Amino acid sequence: MRLRTGLALLAGALLLQAACSGNRRPSGKLVIGVNGSLNLGSNNPVLIQRNANVWEALTELDDSLTAQPQLAESWQATSDGRQWRLRLKRGVRFHDGAALSAPLVAANVLRLKDHPELDYYSTFVNLASAAIDDEFTVRLVFSRPMVDLPNKVGHYFAGIFSPAAFGPDGKLGKPIGSGPYVFAESRIGQYDRVTAFDQYHGGRPYFREIEFRIIPDPVVRLMSLIRGDIDMIAHHGGVPAPYLDLLRNKPGIVVASQDVAITHYLLFNCSRRPFLKMECRDAFSRSLDRAGLVERILQGAGSPARDFLVDRASRWNRGRFSVQPDASGQVKQELKACAGSSAVVLLLSQSDLSAWGYRHVADYLADYFSRLGVPVRVEALEGGAWQKATQDGRYDITLYPLSTPTGTPELLIRRLAFSAGMRIRSIGNTTHFLSGQIDSLFTEALEAPDAATQERGFNHVLDLLAKEQPFVPLYHERYYYAYRRGLAGVHVDPFLKLDLGRLHWEEPHR
Hints:
The chain has helices at 2-19, 102-114, 149-152, 218-227, 278-287, 290-298, 329-339, 350-355, 358-371, 383-392, 410-416, 436-446, 451-468, and strands at 29-34, 59-61, 67-69, 72-77, 83-88, 127-134, 137-142, 181-187, 191-196, 209-214, 232-233, 253-268, 302-304, 344-349, 376-381, 397-403, 471-484, 487-488, 504-505. It is α+β, with helices and mostly antiparallel strands. The protein has 3 domains: 2-41 and 179-252 and 485-505, D-Maltodextrin-Binding Protein, domain 2, CATH 3.40.190; 55-165, Dipeptide-binding Protein, domain 1 (Alpha-Beta Complex); 260-477, Dipeptide-binding Protein, domain 3, CATH 3.10.105. The protein starts with a helix and ends in a 5-residue tail after the last strand.
């Protein structure tokens, strides 16, 4: 009730300020409100987020998480899945004038091969060679099958850059890409700016300059849009669901949504009691009310998870979980027997409390399980301390968001169930789950000779994980964004990328 009253008062204040505002900008400049900088720094493989439209990849995943051509126009694999020939688009220029070519792509691939710390998903760890068949054909040879390569070269850390952009250490001095916009500057805590690339192979962009204005507070972001200080709210965080009513039915503002490829999981610590026992993990999972969580807490900003990955990833969707709880007396007895008299510790990362709204989710879970006779104590640690605590196994359960960057379950399994974790990035298996059978089946799927065999292998692993339940899905993310009426060409993909090259005003903008 207090929240609704506060929002109503805020709405009045916003309308008053909006009425007094007369801010206008040249039609050639677009201002997008974001909650944090898109500049990731030189230690990151791409330096600036994909959302800035500065760089492109060889492929990109469409709304069904299937690889589609981007800088590579086509590809073909040998029957054993060890060699790939990629045909590149002609007429593509980079921001420094370099032309897209097979040698340029080979240099990018070898950059990640030689600097595995930048190859976040270990795409090229088994690369044997990058050969030049002709000016626009590069042949990649692997020491083991790589049947999902088209998916693996289209994620948000897979940018292709002019070789002049990176040094001997593999790091980027500047993100010199081939996208519709050129990186201009970043001001810490203020903005990131990009300018139009006139030689973009997809056509000159409409806007000469785009500013990503950093506005961490969602209320201030809304106020800025209503006042006309910004033209759009579109980035991670977007418009939080509790504030949607402040924008709906406002003249001149469009509110839209997109289901994105992010799932939120409940992780169990499988290395200590009570979740050392599969029966206890199963009892907690069966008692979850996923539909109730979405309805009561998320207020539409998500959908209850019926499977490990989002619904649009249809190859992996088998409806392995129920969105309704098991309300039988038996599951309640099992819960009490597992928890005993000690409180279950739900450990959260401070950064996730606001970024993902986990405080409300955690409070709901604590109240929900207490009604079932299981006390839950919510604790929070700063991000680094949370990561160390979870890696050391000092927690009972935790909440964790994970995307599907390659359109397959590989990252999910490697991050949360494979005993070796992610070796390249020195990230262990957070659930501390150990299964020789799953390790073996997962490795076999990774080295499958064809896509159909790999699909069967990954689904077999997911079937076993649905039984063992070292982690379970809670809900899939739904993202809300808003923009000023008259802005056309707006499209957000499942990875939150806004296609800036398509944006334009429908009519003369005053």
